[in-house]
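Note to self: keep these together.
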Amino acid sequence: MTATKYQSCDYMKTKEFPFWIQRFHHDSLNIPPVHSHEFIELVYVVKGHAKHLFEGQSYTIKTNDVFIINPGEAHTFQIEKEQTLEIINCLFLPSLIQDSWLKELGVSQSMDYFYIHPFLDKNERFHHLLNLDGNYSIRFSHLLEGMMYEYNKENSCFSTLIRLQLVELLILLSRIYNERNSKSSTSYKIVNDSYILIQRICGYLSRNYDQKISIQTLCHLFNISPRHLNRLFKQETGQTVVEMVHNIRIEKAKQLLIESDDKVINVAMKVGYDDPAFFSRLFRRVVGCSPGKYKAMG
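Structure:
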C-alpha cells in the first residue's frame, strides 16, 4: 500500500518556526491513511488503545504510551469498533532545536531518548515503547498542554517558550528511558559509551544532512578529538563520517528525484551539495547511473 507523504508546509505556519501540535480523537471510522512525513512526529496516547501499524509491523498502544516517528517512516492506526483513541501529535523539524544551543545549555548529553531511541533497529523499537506512569504522565501532559496553549494563543515569546518546553519534555523522556534500561535485565542490548556516542552522532547526521557538516563541528558538539572520532566511527559503523554523510544525502536525493519535480541542480542543493557536477559524479558512483537517468526511470 502506497503511503501518503506529508510535507512540513502542510502543517507548519512558517519555515522559521517549524512546529505544530494538536489533539485528535480517532475511532474506527476516523483514522489517518498510511502516511509518512518529512518531519519528526512525537505521539502521546492520552486515552484509549489501538494497534499502531508501523513499517509493515503491528503493535498495541495504550493510555500514556509515547513514541517518536522518524521522517520517512510509514504508519497509521487500527481501531476496533466502538473503541476510541485520543492522542496529542507534536510535529517539528530538527532545525527547531539546534545542537549548538543544547550544548550551551549543557543538555546535549542528556537526550538519549531523542537521539538514540528513534535510530535503534526497528525490531528493538517495535517491542520497546515508553509508557509513562504516575507523576511522569502528569508532568508530561502538562508540558504538552502548555505547548498547545502557547501555540494557539501566539502571545509574545510563544516560540521561545515552546522550544524550552519541548527540550524539557525530551530530557524527561531520556531520564525515563535511562531509568527503565538500568532496571531491566531484558531491556535493550547492553551498549557501551562508544556505541551511544556514535548513535548520537548518527542521529545528528541524519537530521542535519543538508547542512555543512565538518569533523571539527562534530568534535566540538560531542567533545571528542578528530582522531578518536574517526577511529570510533569506523569501528562502530564500518564507514567513515564522510562516507555516511554522502550515503545519507544520496538516499535523500533518490527520494527527491522520484517524488518531486525538482531539477537535478535543485536536488543537489537541497541535500547539501553546492557543486552539481560533484553531486552527479558521486550519485553515478553510488547508484550506478546519473541523477537525470534515475529520475527518468522513476
